[in-house]
């Protein structure tokens, strides 16, 4: 297993209105061997409540990975990304992977502008999806170990985790290794 009870589970928010697609994604995550906790929401509104930690999501964890469908019943994944940027200016450190059947270069370009880590076309190749998730988990483990090692008292510090440029570096590294 990539990560275990000694490492922080990867906190994943899956924003997907299609139950079949949600099941496929959840099943792939289970098979990935990545230590994680997943929350499933089905609308833009629910995703925003989760990120704002309001209402039923008042105790929502801080996200490590956002898996985002583009076409949702009450808007688009772009609405989620734009709202996320407003409510969490540091949101650049939340890795976002778009999983969509939408074949629109305008959406893809806007996702790039908003710092989306990866844009995967449905039907999703499980191999590609698992590569992205595992690469991100490896990065998380590395950052956690670096934070503990750099803290003066041996406890996890905050600054090593809050480094948005690592997502970009990891993404480019992962892309070049395939």
TrEMBL record:
Listed GO biological process terms: phosphorelay signal transduction system
SUPFAM superfamilies attached to this UniProt entry: CheY-like
Pfam families: Response_reg
Sequence positions bearing 4-aspartylphosphate: 69
Keywords recorded for this protein, A-Z: Phosphoprotein
Keyword Transmembrane: no
Family annotation (PROSITE patterns): RESPONSE_REGULATORY
Domain Response regulatory: 11-137
SMART domains xref list: REC
Name of the featured protein: Response regulator rcp1
Organism from which the protein derives: Neorhodopirellula pilleata
